[in-house]
């Protein structure tokens, strides 16, 4: 029981850190939209709207993971993390804009948080399958 509580406490922290990192990056992206490398079809309103899709998926994934003891929520957690990795697409857009250290930092903070979530969920199931074998 204590181990399960520790697991959920860690999972909650990682998901909330992902939400926090996305808030920082998305707000900065919307405020300084003209300075970020973005495809021509993207607008600050779409960036803003995507955050309002991304975040409820993250919260929902956390709730489902905790309620189902990860058996159903892990796919939602992976989806949420992969959506967080979309910030790396800034590096795939050709532009004359030069990204600042702040832009790079916010993009990578969000990406690292997403990678951490992917790694944590993956290790949880790897450890769970090891314990089931014994």
From TrEMBL:
TM region(s), chain numbering: 12-29, 49-66, 75-93, 105-125
**UniProt entry keywords in alphabetical sequence:** Membrane, Transmembrane, Transmembrane helix
Q: What's the protein here called?
A: Uncharacterized protein
What organism, scientifically named, is this protein from? Psychrobacter pacificensis
């Amino acid at each position: 029981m204590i181990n399960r509580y520790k697991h959920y406490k860690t999972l909650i922290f990682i998901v909330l850190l992902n939400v926090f990192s996305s808030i920082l990056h998305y707000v900065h992206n919307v405020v300084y939209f003209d300075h970020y490398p973005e495809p021509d079809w993207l607008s600050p309103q779409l960036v803003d709207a995507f955050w309002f899709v991304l975040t409820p998926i993250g919260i929902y994934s956390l709730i489902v993971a905790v309620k189902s003891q990860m058996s159903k929520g892990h796919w939602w957690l992976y989806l949420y993390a992969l959506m967080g990795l979309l910030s790396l697409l800034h590096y795939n857009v050709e532009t004359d804009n030069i990204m600042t250290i702040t832009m790079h930092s916010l993009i990578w903070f969000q990406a690292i948080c997403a990678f951490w979530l992917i790694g944590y969920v993956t290790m949880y199931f790897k450890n769970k399958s090891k314990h089931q074998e014994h």
